[in-house]
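Hey, sorry to bother you again with one of my protein questions. There's a protein on my desk that I can't quite get my head around. No rush at all, and the record is pasted right below.
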Amino acid sequence: MIRTTALLALATAASARELKLIGTIDIDDHKIETRTRFESWMKLFNKEYTNAQVDAKFETFKANDVFIQDYNTKGYSATVGHNEFSDMSWEEFAPFYTGVNDKASYLRRTKNVNHALSSQQVVDAAPASIDWSKKNAVTPIKNQGQCGSCWAFSTTGSTEGAYAIASGKLVSLSEQMLVDCDKKSDQGCNGGLMDNAFAYIKGNGGLCTEADYPYTAADGTCQTTCAPAVTLTGHTDVPQKDEDALKAAVAIGPVSVAIEADKSAFQFYKSGVFDNAGCGTTLDHGVLAVGYGTLNSKMYWKVKNSWGATWGLNGYILLARGTTAAPKNMCGISQSASYPTGATAASPSPGPSPGPSPGPSPGPSPGPSPGPGPNDCFLKSDKKDCTGETGCYWCADIEFCFNTPCPKKDTPFFK
């Protein structure tokens, strides 16, 4: 009897210690019993289930746990781990958290490609690394929730960046306005495309701020009470499958890119440079390339996602980066990249043209420049900006701004 009582006391004490750990333990530590980690994970992410749901969710968590443990033993340059989505299989997750419509008709569309981005002159002008999230050109991580509106977040991200670089003002723009109002070519929570959204912003005379038109993560009725804050004159498509050109584009500012994200390794990405050819290239998710660099001798693209700050590297992922000569095209990142041009404050009047606000110079405002330094000429996206800057040359044949005289027409640069 004394022995039994002692055993019960020990069991109770052990149970108490275990309960104290719930919510504070490492949920990726496979030395800890799976159910304990599941309960800790529930507390960490404020998950609540009915009695009927909890066992099924635990089974999904266990299956994802097996995948995570196995993946991390294979020597990849990136690690995976549990996150907010550990109670969802990929089949449950994908319909809500992707949303790029990669239709054949879209891929065959007439593209506004700027081949100047492929020139050696422009590629050489790009810095060795850049991170616009550290240059006041990227808003904090956002969360699309269970709505296939990734395309809207990618669009606002590149537009916010272009306007911040042009004006020195970082303004968070409304994804919900695109979800509700851009219905001619896009389908709200059922998916869309960034190029279509750029066209909508231009045609509408601008986009409202997030504060004036907040996000609801659901399709709604288009509201017309807010005044557009930022508009643009167009957009540029980056030459397809040309990572040197994409590098040059990202050196100009954040770039909207489409990737394939329908793999568990992407769903549970945690850290490191993601380099896994199994990622695929069937585009289904819109994200934002905000920079590039090298980590542990491995080149990467820094990509802003829209799954909240608890996913990945505080909301970001590093995707393996290649060159045009030695391409990676990780997850299809170089297949459909584009960025807005002519970002400026929207006109306060209801006139037909929301062109640049009047003022002496449309160049960067005084103060520290977010640009890459001595090669700022190629940050100028239109003739007026370019010719207004001393030492810059506007090359009309290719509609690009250089910091040296324009290349001759008989050079291989023109194509």
